[in-house]
Amino acid sequence: MNGLEIWDLALLAIGVIGTGAVAGVLAGLLGVGGGIVVVPVLFWVFVALDLPPELGMQVAVATSLITVSVTALSSARAHHRRGSLDMALVWRWAPWMAAGALAGGLLAGLVSGRVLLLVFGTIALLVALNLARPQTRVLAEALPEARGAQPALASGVGGISAMMGIGAGTLGVPLMTAFSVPVHRAVGTAAGLGLVIGVPAAIAMMVTGQGVEGRPPLSVGYANIPAAALILPLSVLCAPLGARLAHALEPVWIKRAFAVFLCITAARMLWVALT
Known about the structure:
2 strands, globular, mainly alpha, 78% helix
């Protein structure tokens, strides 16, 4: 390892420690999975380290998927103890969501990083608009029973989430609540499905990123192992601080704050992708 690589590792560690702290606070404050926060912040860290934006986005997505896999397991266990994890729905959706996540992970590793920026920016804007709505729109009184409907929903959430580097919560919770699944059960079930998305998608990006030039040191494919290792403990440690802030603030303002955060982040990522 030469001096430049050691310096890069030092800068990466400093930036990622901050990423983990920010992700933890915002996750605790806003009740969202870390991926929706980790990916954009980590992307800007890698860009600051002079990685091309295209490569930086792929590394950010793959690294986030590792953290999603680990945190989803811990979160799912906690929700299961509280009885909010719908195992019947998890088993029904898991094969289709895993297939979608695998396809999304392979696609994320093969397409240009600018495509991932466009996907993340566009979906993040839609999520922000949904959060800004005063009430959740209910589409039906139950999940659709038509043949192929739920497999299509599950695989779609898995594929898009994999390309964004996030778990099942950001897209899965609004989807389930739109079909009248109680919000606590939707959150718990999405936590269980996060592992189903993170593992196959992360493996796919590790494989497709093999041999790519210019990756940060100690990367396996597109996934940067030191970054993932630093994000996880800091995120866990800082989440209680965000949770305490959440209890001190009005929920409506928390949702609006996250919507503003997503709008700004999405706009910046779309600007990079289109310029």
